[in-house]
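Exercise 7b. Backbone tokens:
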């Protein structure tokens, strides 16, 4: 079949012959050079699958034509080469596959039809919590605690590894999925041995984590999807998408001394957010990228969800070649990657010179300044020169800033504009760890070097180590109220820090290794010391965290911490030394030396030459080869886990893994789409409601519905673990949906958290209790929201949870791409207010009843009828089911039901 394709060509390297689907086979009719790098990858994907039913010739012609002025959106199919999972989102994905095997048996089919058809790799990296810190055995203790807490999940994953084909698991304690992907899993070019040929094609992927985009730094196209969409991709379903808009960002110049890749990425994030790239591809090119290492590029690519893009991709070039060699890839493969990319016109940023972009942006690296971002959004960049003054402004907004000018004991500082403001002295006396101190507003209570964003980058980690070394030598120490932690993304990090003799220097300041995985950045920061937590709550202190991560949304890092700031690893240490966000790091001392002299940030900040010299000396390919040679091997505890040997899971009693109800009573033919009649509003929400607000994440509150469920099943509070670790149990997850401590439901004014008012009685109760009462009455529910509904991580439970709560539709002003897709994937109807309309303009207060007609394929709008206590009216809303494939999923009740029925038909 493939030999007959008009697009197939061959290339020879070192006497070996290889086949590939050539873009220049279209050169007679299309100017392929016009296509951006990412669009070329999509076009190759269409050519390679041109004989499949989901690819039409007009799709190929439309993409190859690349007319950026053509507003006629065309849907295309994208078949990723592989799928990556992390365990928070991966466990429920495997749970669904296990449940689908049971459902296939119920339909009279073969359970072995439920098997990944593409390589699937799951990295256990989201389950370690920072219970122990600032001690030499913190890693061992946290790892032991992790396995103890998650034994049932890990048993289930080991069963999945044995039961499913094409499924590998990286055991806990090995690294963060995105860094493992970058350093080891990425193929860059697939070399697939077939019966009659060896086929070359681009490495592409989707992953169940929004930061899957980190791999774009290596020139590999991939992005985050919801778990349900990833499951469909595993089972052979293409990802359907509209031909994307591609924004080109030209990079020129060089970074100034003293700035880091973190400063650059925060600047890029701010610029792209301001421009508006939601749902678009971003492609970086220009002379400046030649100076950016793959680690720098990966830092930028990682943050694509924060600037709102589907992906942020860099070209393949000499930096790619250098990195692949550094990380121990096979020399034959490296040469093939380059030869293939050159044959396809995909090698080097020069190949992008003829590319036509939908928009062109520019950034001069020389204009980048040292920055942080916060207090609650990654795109809110703050130059370090303004950090203290902007924090004081934020404190003022919290009505916690003491404005009296008569108290001479209150400190002052000057902002850039010369305006004088008071430093808040709202404080509490604390005794902890043998010390007595004042805990003030602005206190940095968490300082974490964490997350995939920065820990792929030796330059910023070496910089942090050098800064720690200089600080210790001068006699500086971290303030006693700061919870310090170091959670690198790869074991290789430990190797080169040891070789550089910097591990001990970090430990001197309390930055001991706490685990290899996502910790503080995803809410696994662990508990604060009880005396500090008690003081914060008693005095209602506005304390802060500083972390080298990518997310700082409200309620995400720690429930006691309202203001959270992203910063480079060396700045994290600097703030831990200063101890308070009200201190101007550029003007005020971090502390005093052994001799009592004030020590400033400039005194301990390493030079670029110091950093780069040490990086060159200590980072080598042997480290990568050695560490990754055992990547799929677990320790004795992992290998001795009891695992059932069967093609169907036996679903033992567990509060971690439970058979979901999504497929209960499934029939071969789906029910017809019905109207939504007299629905009640479960929540009425404002703008920028994130999936962190919707989906259960972080710690489980001791007084909520999820805690009540656990206690009823004999689980003590100290064993609650996190919502993320319990994503495989739908009973817990639905009880934690819409329960974020910072969620503001306008139906329950004056409250924060998972509260609503039951209609029509207006009785206040938890969202879960109200949802259950509505379901008992047979009353459907809707959610009303503002702009950017569902921004943030690609959380499938942000769609699964509402479905289980009985939500039939969401009506919002705009959606984040992944979340809208996930709603459809769970059979929830996404509607969008027409321009100019909103809940406010239509005077919807959420107490009304809402009726929505049954929607049909191709229908773009629907009438929503509203019945209030005093009046009745209607408005027209957009139906945000954007493609025919999406409608197929929706009409089947969800994407998994669609796949299940399709596979059962395929005899």
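Sequence design result:
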């Amino acid at each position: 079949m493939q030999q007959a394709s008009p697009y197939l060509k061959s290339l020879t390297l070192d006497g070996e012959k290889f086949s590939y689907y050539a873009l220049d086979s279209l050169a007679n009719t299309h100017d392929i050079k016009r296509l951006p790098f990412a669009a070329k990858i999509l076009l190759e994907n269409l050519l390679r699958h041109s004989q499949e039913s989901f690819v039409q010739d007009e799709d190929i012609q439309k993409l190859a034509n690349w007319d950026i002025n053509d507003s006629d959106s065309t849907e295309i199919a994208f078949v990723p080469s592989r799928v990556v999972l992390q365990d928070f989102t991966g466990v429920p994905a495997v749970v669904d596959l296990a449940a689908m095997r049971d459902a296939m048996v119920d339909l009279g089919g073969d359970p072995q039809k439920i098997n990944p058809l593409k390589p699937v790799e799951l990295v256990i990296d989201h389950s370690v919590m920072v219970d122990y810190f600032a001690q030499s055995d913190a890693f061992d203790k946290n790892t032991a605690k992790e396995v103890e807490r998650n034994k049932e999940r890990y048993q289930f994953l080991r069963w999945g590894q044995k039961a499913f084909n094409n499924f590998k698991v990286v055991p806990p304690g090995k690294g963060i999925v995105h860094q493992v992907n970058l350093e080891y899993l990425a193929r860059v070019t697939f070399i697939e041995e077939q019966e009659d040929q060896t086929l070359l094609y681009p490495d592409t992927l989707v992953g169940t984590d929004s930061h899957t985009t980190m791999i774009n730094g290596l020139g590999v196209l991939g992005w985050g999807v919801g778990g349900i969409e990833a499951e469909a991709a595993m089972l052979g379903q293409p990802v359907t998408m509209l031909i994307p808009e591609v924004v080109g960002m030209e990079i020129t110049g060089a970074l100034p001394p003293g700035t880091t890749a973190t400063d650059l990425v925060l600047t890029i994030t701010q610029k792209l957010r301001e421009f508006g790239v939601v749902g678009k591809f971003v492609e970086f090119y220009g002379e400046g990228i030649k100076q950016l290492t793959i680690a720098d590029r990966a830092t930028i690519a990682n943050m694509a969800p924060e600037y709102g893009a589907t992906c942020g991709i860099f070209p393949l070039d000499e930096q790619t070649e250098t990195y692949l060699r550094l990380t121990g890839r096979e020399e034959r493969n490296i040469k093939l990657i380059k030869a293939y990319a050159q044959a396809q016109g995909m090698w080097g940023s020069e190949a992008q010179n003829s590319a036509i972009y939908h928009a062109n942006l520019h950034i001069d690296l020389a204009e980048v300044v040292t920055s942080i971002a916060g207090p609650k959004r990654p795109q809110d960049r703050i130059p370090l020169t303004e950090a203290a003054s902007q924090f004081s402004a934020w404190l003022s907004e919290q009505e916690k800033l003491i404005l009296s000018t008569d108290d001479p004991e209150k400190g002052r500082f000057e902002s850039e504009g010369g305006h004088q403001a008071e430093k808040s002295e709202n404080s509490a006396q604390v005794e902890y760890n043998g010390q007595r101190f004042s805990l003030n507003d602005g206190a940095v209570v968490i300082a974490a070097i964490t997350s995939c964003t920065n820990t792929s980058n030796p330059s910023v980690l070496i910089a942090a180590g050098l800064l720690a070394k200089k600080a210790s030598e001068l006699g500086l120490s971290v303030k006693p109220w700061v919870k310090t932690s170091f959670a690198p993304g790869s074991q290789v990090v430990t190797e080169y820090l040891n070789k550089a003799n910097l591990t001990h220097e970090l430990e001197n300041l309390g930055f001991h290794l706490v685990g290899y995985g996502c910790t503080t950045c995803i809410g696994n920061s662990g508990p604060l010391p009880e005396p500090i937590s008690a003081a914060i709550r008693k005095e209602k202190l506005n304390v802060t965290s500083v972390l080298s991560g990518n997310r700082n949304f409200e309620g995400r890092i720690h429930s006691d911490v309202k203001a959270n700031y992203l910063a480079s690893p060396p700045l994290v240490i600097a703030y831990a030394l200063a101890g308070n966000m009200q201190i101007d790091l550029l003007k005020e001392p971090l502390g005093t030396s052994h001799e009592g002299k004030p020590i400033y940030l400039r005194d301990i900040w390493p030079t670029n030459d110091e950093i780069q010299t040490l990086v060159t000396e200590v980072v080598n390919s042997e480290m990568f080869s050695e560490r990754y040679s055992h990547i799929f091997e677990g320790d004795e505890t992992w290998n001795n886990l009891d695992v059932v040997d069967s093609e169907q899971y036996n679903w033992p009693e567990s509060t971690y893994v439970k058979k979901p109800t999504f497929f209960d009573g499934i029939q071969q033919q789906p029910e017809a789409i019905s109207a939504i009649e007299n629905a009640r509003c479960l929540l009425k929400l404002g703008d920028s409601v994130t999936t962190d607000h919707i989906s259960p994440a972080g710690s489980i509150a001791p007084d909520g519905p999820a805690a009540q469920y656990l206690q009823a099943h004999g689980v003590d509070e100290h064993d609650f673990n996190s919502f993320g670790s319990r994503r495989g149990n739908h009973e817990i997850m639905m009880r934690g949906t819409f329960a974020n401590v910072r969620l503001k439901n306008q139906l329950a004014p004056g409250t924060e958290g998972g509260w609503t008012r039951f209609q029509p009685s207006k009785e206040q109760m938890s969202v879960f209790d109200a949802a259950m009462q509505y379901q008992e009455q047979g009353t459907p529910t809707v959610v009303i929201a503002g702009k950017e509904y569902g921004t943030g991580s690609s959380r499938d439970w942000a769609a699964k949870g509402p479905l289980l709560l009985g939500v039939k539709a969401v009506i919002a002003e705009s959606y984040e791409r992944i979340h809208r897709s996930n709603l459809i994937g769970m059979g929830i109807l996404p509607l969008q207010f027409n321009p100019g309309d909103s809940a406010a303009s239509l005077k919807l207060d959420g107490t009304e009843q809402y009726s929505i007609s049954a929607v049909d394929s191709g229908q773009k709008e629907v009438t929503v009828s509203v019945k209030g206590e005093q009046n009745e009216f209607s408005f027209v809303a957009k139906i945000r089911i954007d493609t025919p494939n999406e409608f197929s999923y929706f009409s089947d009740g969800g994407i998994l039901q669609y796949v299940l029925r399709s596979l059962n038909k395929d005899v």
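Instructor comment: Residues 676-695+737-891 form a domain with the Aconitase; domain 4 fold (CATH 3.20.19.10). Residues 400-421 have pLDDT under 50 and may be disordered.
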